[in-house]
């Protein structure tokens, strides 16, 4: 229960934190989940109280077509989505109950339902836990049931996933993908369009994706990692985690973190703009390729160093009060680097 309250408190505090504007939909999602449901569900159960486990598996085949719309909602449990070889969407629903004994676990299973609504190329799948009154009628103040979704869908399917406690993995889906969870990791690979990937407590990783749109990803207490991604714009933020970029092809890249480092590895794009900032961490660039850049770097209580022969305006490593700054150009200056940290160092080096 303490953990549940901490997670909810973190969600409510998000709007006052840096970069918090990306989270309002998460707060609305929490408000839509009945408080009684959260209190009776899955959090904070001692292992000794739930020694026995019972599982129920069901499979639904959905006729959504090659570019259908699938929406998944969950309270507790992991979600895995992969590309199908055929035209149908298949959803395996794995319900797991944990109780004091086998009978206790078996009695819990029917109390949690999954509603599946399908119509005209769209499907909505939601986990439904009993309300507080229903739980009391069934003498179930402690209901430890999780639901996992294992989904295969045509690559053009448009997918939205919302979860409270559980990890989300999406592989080789080329349609629009939006993934949000409160407590869990998000990993998206081989995507064609990622509208959003956000978690409050967990790591976000986007890899091996090519898209003609913008990518926005964030975590409150976890790392954000973007690898081998092509996109028009990439934005990543964390409060207490690192932001790591590796081999991007993108015209505009921005990253911010409060108590972590920002690391960029790979080539720059001509005419690209890179805005990288940390409050109490290092900003480090390991650059490859021959693209020149114009740089403005500021550290308020750290050092700035570069392996590149930057033609500076003013004195390199110039101090203004406690602040160290560099402004200058390397090569043709076709890319722009805007680098800031308060209590960390800025390092620009060759890969």
Question: Would you write up a description of this structure?
Answer:
The chain is mainly beta. Helix content is 11%, strand content 53%. The chain is built from 5 helices and 27 strands. The protein has a 27-stranded mixed sheet that branches. The N and C termini lie far apart (47 Å).
Task: Please supply descriptive tags for the structure shown above.
351 residues; mainly beta; 27-stranded mixed β-sheet; 5 helices; 11% helix; disordered N terminus
Report the oligomer.
Answer: single chain
Report, as a whole number of angstroms, the end-to-end distance: 47 Å
State the major sheet.
27 strands, mixed
Portion in strands: over 45%
Overall morphology: elongated
Bin the helical content: 10-25%
Unreliable residue runs: 1-48
The DSSP helix count reads 5
Give the mean pLDDT.
85
- Number-wise, the strands total 27
Write the layout of secondary structure elements.
Elements (H helix, E strand, L loop, with lengths): L1 H12 L10 H9 L2 H6 L11 E11 L6 E8 L2 E5 L5 E11 L2 H7 L4 E7 L2 E7 L3 H6 L7 E9 L4 E8 L2 E4 L4 E8 L2 E4 L3 E9 L2 E7 L3 E6 L4 E15 L4 E4 L2 E9 L4 E6 L5 E6 L4 E6 L4 E7 L4 E3 L4 E2 L5 E3 L2 E8 L4 E7 L4 E5 L1
């Amino acid at each position: 229960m303490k953990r549940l309250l901490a997670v909810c408190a973190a969600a409510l505090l998000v709007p006052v934190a840096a970069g918090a504007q990306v989270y309002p939909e998460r707060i609305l999602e929490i408000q839509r989940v009945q408080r009684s449901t959260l209190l009776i569900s899955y959090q904070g159960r001692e292992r000794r109280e739930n020694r026995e486990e019972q599982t129920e598996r069901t499979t639904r085949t959905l006729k959504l077509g090659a570019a259908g719309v699938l929406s998944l909602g969950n309270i507790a449990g992991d979600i895995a989505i992969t590309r199908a070889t055929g035209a149908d969407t298949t959803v395996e629903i794995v319900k797991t109950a944990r109780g004091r004994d086998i009978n206790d676990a078996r009695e819990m299973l029917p109390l949690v339902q999954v509603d599946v609504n399908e119509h005209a190329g769209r499907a909505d799948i939601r986990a439904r836990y009993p309300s507080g009154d229903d739980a009391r009628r069934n003498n179930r103040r402690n209901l430890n049931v999780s639901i996992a979704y294992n989904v295969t869908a045509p690559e053009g399917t448009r997918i939205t996933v919302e979860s409270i406690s559980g990890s989300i993995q999406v592989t080789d889906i080329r349609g629009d993908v939006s993934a949000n969870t409160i407590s869990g990791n998000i990993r998206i690979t081989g995507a064609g369009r990622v509208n959003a990937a956000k978690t409050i407590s967990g790591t976000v990783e986007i890899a091996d994706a090519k898209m003609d749109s913008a990518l926005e990803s964030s975590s409150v207490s976890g790392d954000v990692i973007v690898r081998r991604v092509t996109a028009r714009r990439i934005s990543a933020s964390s409060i207490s985690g690192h932001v790591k970029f590796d081999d991007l092809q993108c015209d505009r890249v921005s990253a911010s973190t409060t108590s972590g480092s920002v690391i960029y590895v790979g080539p720059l794009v001509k005419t690209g703009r890179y805005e990288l900032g940390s409050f109490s961490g290092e900003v480090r660039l390991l650059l490859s390729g021959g693209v020149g850049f114009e740089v403005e770097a500021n550290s308020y209580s750290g050092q700035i160093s570069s392996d590149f022969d930057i033609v500076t305006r003013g004195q390199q490593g110039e101090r203004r009060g406690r602040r160290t700054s560099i402004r200058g150009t390397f090569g043709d200056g076709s890319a722009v680097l805007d680098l800031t940290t308060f209590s960390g160092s800025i390092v620009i080096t060759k890969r």
